[in-house]
């Protein structure tokens, strides 16, 4: 009998130890795709919640700084969790985490308002986005690289290009640099004013919420200037006017205007015509300076009590308060250029281009945020005006798209004067009052009828 011996397998020269077993058991086993999605998508959601939540309505540097801080945290978490819980460490994510944390600290501490940095941060951000794309391609083997990270890198690159374009346009756009009229010192800042025509009384046109002088200078001012002197101006921080050292409420805005007219050598008393929120400022002027108020025209004006009397206004106020706070930061990315590229198409070319040039800028959006931040105070101050006495008052009301509570509040404004008249414009919307040639012409006629009433001393209801 033959016996065949089966050879034994050679012994492992490095037998397993308890330490090796522990290492094998503790090897990273997390899912890299889930971690990428959780940190990056979660960071974007957290940033949005910060803007509409605890930082809603905040100043630009607070909004921008908080968003950058959230983004920095999300990149830091990606680097940390991928290194500790997976076999695909994304250590490159530490670089955007540090860069955005430094940027957030700078913005929060320095609170820059100018756009000089617009020549610096776009190329840096673009280079960072390209570098991140290259590093992630080398180190991340997951569909989330294409589905999550690449879209983020693309948005960062678009933001850089948009920011560079915005800075370029702000520097080179002639519509913003060719100022009509002049700047006049009103104490601690200068305001822009432009007056045309001759005759008395002088009409002062007050633009609406977020508007600059060009919207009133385009269609209404030329009509009025054919009969009497008319002035358009920019409130502090708007258009060509310098920013004030502090936020302006209704009374401070009216005082600025009174000082502006006096220092510009324009004689009163004046006929003041205000569109939308401009009506609130006009009423504040009439309250503070009744002797310098010859008459008032409210062009589809806000009512001082509409927060309490218009059912839809509180909801709109809260929504716009959040939007207006985020818009300065977004406008630095060139988004304003896209939004306003076709706006105000019915205005004359000069004023149309001026509106588009200014309304796209971060500075303008800061002024809108600041104005809206103070609008309830301005409304409360205007509500203190009990009566205009027998000073003539004209109320022009647009009906198309108007809130159901709007007509009653417009009629209520008539009670401010014993000499008042209302003109209703069917088929005309709120914005058309100053932007549409036909509607603006009707607004001009309303103003000139009141001018004639002041000149002749006859009731405004008899004019026209």
Q: What is the element layout, followed by pairings?
A:
Layout: H1 18-25, H2 32-52, H3 60-85, H4 94-110, H5 121-139, H6 144-172, H7 174-177, E1 182-185, E2 190-196, E3 202-206, H8 214-218, H9 220-225, E4 230-233, H10 250-263, E5 270-275, H11 277-288, E6 293-299, H12 306-309, H13 313-331, H14 335-339, H15 349-359, H16 362-382, E7 393-398, H17 406-413, E8 420-425, H18 432-435, H19 437-456
Parallel strand pairs: 3-4, 3-5, 5-6, 6-7, 7-8
Antiparallel strand pairs: 1-2, 2-4
Order of helices and strands: HHHHHHHEEEHHEHEHEHHHHHEHEHH
CATH class of the largest domain: Alpha Beta
Q: What's the shape? A: elongated
Low-confidence spans: pLDDT under 50, at least 5 residues? Answer: 1-27
Strand order of the largest sheet: 1-2-4-3-5-6-7-8
Q: Counting H and I runs of at least 4 residues, what is the number of helices? A: 19
Gap from first CA to last CA: 135 Å
What structural category arises from helix and sheet content? alpha/beta
Q: What percent strand?
A: 5-15%
CATH fold assignment of the largest domain? Rossmann fold
Give an overview in words:
By secondary structure, the chain is α/β, with parallel strands linked by helices. It folds into two domains: 30-172; 183-462, Rossmann fold (3-Layer(aba) Sandwich). It is built from 19 helices and eight strands. Mean pLDDT is 91; it is low at 1-27.
């Amino acid at each position: 009998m033959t016996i065949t011996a089966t050879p034994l397998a050679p012994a492992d020269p490095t037998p397993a130890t308890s330490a090796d077993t522990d290492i094998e058991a503790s090897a990273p086993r997390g899912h890299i795709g889930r971690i990428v999605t959780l940190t990056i998508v979660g960071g974007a959601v957290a940033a949005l919640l910060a803007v509409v939540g605890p930082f809603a309505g905040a100043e630009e540097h607070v909004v921008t700084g908080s968003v950058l801080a959230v983004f920095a945290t999300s990149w830091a978490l990606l680097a940390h969790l991928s290194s500790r819980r997976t076999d695909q460490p994304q250590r490159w994510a530490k670089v955007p985490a540090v860069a955005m944390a430094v940027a957030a600290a700078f913005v929060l501490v320095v609170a820059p308002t100018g756009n000089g940095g617009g020549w610096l941060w776009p190329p840096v951000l673009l280079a960072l986005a390209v570098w991140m794309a290259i590093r992630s391609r080398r180190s991340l083997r997951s569909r989330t690289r294409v589905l999550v990270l690449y879209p983020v890198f693309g948005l960062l690159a678009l933001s850089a290009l948009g920011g560079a374009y915005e800075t370029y346009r702000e520097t080179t756009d002639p519509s913003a640099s060719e100022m009509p009229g002049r700047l006049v010192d009103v104490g601690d800042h200068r305001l822009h004013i432009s007056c045309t025509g001759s005759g008395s009384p002088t009409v002062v046109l007050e633009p609406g919420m977020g508007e600059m002088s060009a919207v009133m200078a385009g269609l209404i001012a030329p009509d009025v200037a054919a009969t009497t002197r008319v002035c358009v101006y920019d409130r502090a921080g708007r258009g060509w006017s310098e920013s004030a050292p502090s936020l302006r409420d209704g009374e401070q805005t009216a005082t600025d205007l009174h000082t502006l007219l006096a220092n510009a050598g324009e004689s009163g008393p004046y006929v003041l015509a205000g569109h939308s929120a401009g009506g609130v400022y006009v009423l504040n002027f009439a309250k503070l300076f009744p002797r310098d108020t010859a008459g008032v025209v409210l062009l589809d004006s806000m009512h001082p009590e509409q927060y309490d009397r218009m059912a839809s206004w509180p909801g709109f106020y809260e929504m716009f308060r959040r939007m207006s706070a985020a818009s300065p930061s977004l406008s630095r990315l060139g988004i304003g250029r896209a939004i306003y590229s076709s706006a105000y198409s019915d205005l004359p070319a000069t004023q149309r281009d001026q509106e588009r040039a200014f309304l796209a800028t971060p500075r303008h959006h800061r002024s809108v945020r600041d104005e809206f931040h103070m609008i309830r105070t301005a409304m409360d101050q205007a509500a203190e005006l009990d009566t205009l006495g027998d000073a003539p008052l004209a109320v022009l009301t647009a009906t198309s798209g108007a809130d159901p509570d709007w007509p009653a509040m417009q009629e209520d404004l008539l009670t401010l004067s014993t000499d008042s008249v209302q003109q209703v414009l069917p088929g005309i919307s709120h914005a058309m009052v100053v932007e549409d040639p036909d509607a603006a012409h009707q607004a001009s006629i309303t103003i000139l009828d009141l001018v004639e009433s002041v000149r002749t001393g006859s009731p405004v209801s008899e004019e026209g």
